[in-house]
Amino acid sequence: MSKGLHKVAGVVGVGDTDWRADYAAQRKGEPARFDGIGLASLAFKRALADSGLKRDDIDGLIVGPTTPYERMGEVLGLDTRWGGQADAMLGVIQACMAIKSGLAEVVALVYGNNQRSGKVNYGGSNAAGGQSFLSYVYHAPWGFTSQGALYAMMFQRYMEETGLTSAQLGQVAVAQREAASLNPGAVMQERITTQDYLDSRFVCEPLHLFDYCLINDGGVALIIAEAERAKSIRPDPVMIHGVGRYDLNSGATSLEPRLTDYYLPAQQKVAEQVFNMAGVGPEDMSSAQVYDSFSCHIPLALEGYGYCPPGGAGQFLEEGHHRLGGRLPVNTSGGHLSESYMQGWAHQVEAVRQLRGQCGARQVPGCNYVHYSSDVAGKAVSIIYGR
Amino acid sequence: MGKSIPIQALTDLPMWQSIEEGALKLQFCSDCDTCRYPPAPICPSCLSMDSEWRPVTGEGTVMSWVIFHRKYFDDFPPPYNAMAVRLDEGPIIVTNLLDPVPGSSLIGRRIKLEYVDHDGRKQHGARLKEAD
Ligand SMILES: [Zn+2]
């Protein structure tokens, strides 16, 4: 059987921007230093420096969805033989596909988002994508808007069905803030207690403020190279051991796959694909990085990928297995809730740094494999990183 | 901030019109009777492109609900609720509970749609079939 994209490529460079400092400056009323393209450019320079490569070594380019592809390539002076526009998870997969097919050898992935200084709305009458995202078109006349509300609707039913409590869900925010307190780059570093969580205001009940991601400016870049080339670039490339994807499109607008089984079948299909390709299982993972626009992504992923049985996430969280020092530390940087909301891009960087052993006080000891997963509106994606 | 405005497109005009007339109609496949919601040019079940619009009973069962505490629209001052209801005809729609939100769970409760004036347009809302 084909090993698919198993160890076809590795990450040789990562870069990000000063989101904590930028956030603090903007809170003081200072103007933003960069727009989205500027943020992506800064991250790219840092990733290039981290890799030790020269700009002209790059022959493929992936640009995140928040900046235009051609302009991004233009400002970076990158003429490439292959390119495309993709989100974080599909960007990594597409880079591996291009490398496997010989269309590129060294791919730069760049992302920049000035969502805070640019006042991007994720709900309401001018929500990003609101004219084309059908869940908004068909539900906004009844005041139902925002990604948070979609997940609140989903999780209300999940909580009743499984008995998971607010205090148990709150363990996600508490643990990720604890991890962020050990991450000098994280935007939010002040620890919170379960009581702080329960006392925080609702945004869309049953979800509290602390269940929601931050909105901050930032950029992220990765450089992914063909396996042999990666080993010649640096002694410790972080290899991509497996990828998987499954989309639940049927009934998506009417919330059918959210409300009937919480995307579980999609995640289970991806689990089979990604763990088979990587040749390892959930018990081999040292850490998980889970796309967390909202805290409730974490219990759904824990169940979907077999870290606990369906319906068992509440107990898993209550017992603290997702915390640093636990069986499966999750979102060890603080994630979208506490580090930086980079739409999954910074999660890839954290996976790489954990595997390199560069994470200081939040380092997971003996880190061998890191599982990245996302379920964004029914599209389940996973990547397993290893040495 | 702005108001909530229904965005109408070619395939769903009859639906918005039926709401304005106070009796929700949905689109059913002429060949296999599958309900297409949101309305669509083709049946996701049998790929037939023929369809007809029929009124629904307006009765259904609550799948889930939320309460908004943040303001998103000028015409929806918080707190306000939104519910996902599975209509007896099959599809899940979003509407508002017109009764006070009870302290107990709404999931599984039976509802019937009513039509109310909302900021110059008519739209559906739901009443619990058995009073709380
Ligand atoms: Zn049909």
From TrEMBL, chain A:
Gene3D superfamilies: 3.40.47.10. Residues 261-386 form the Thiolase C-terminal domain. GO terms for molecular function: acyltransferase activity. It comes from the Bacteria. InterPro entries: Thiolase-like (IPR016039), Thiolase_C_2 (IPR055140). It holds the Pfam family Thiolase_C_1. This is Thiolase C-terminal domain-containing protein. SUPFAM superfamilies: Thiolase-like.
UniProtKB/TrEMBL annotation, chain B:
This is Nucleic-acid-binding protein containing a Zn-ribbon. Residues 53-114 form the ChsH2 C-terminal OB-fold domain. It holds the Pfam family zf-ChsH2. It comes from the Bacteria. SUPFAM superfamilies: Nucleic acid-binding proteins. Residues 16-48 form the ChsH2 rubredoxin-like zinc ribbon domain. InterPro entries: ChsH2_C, ChsH2_Znr, NA-bd_OB-fold, Thioester_dehydratase-like.
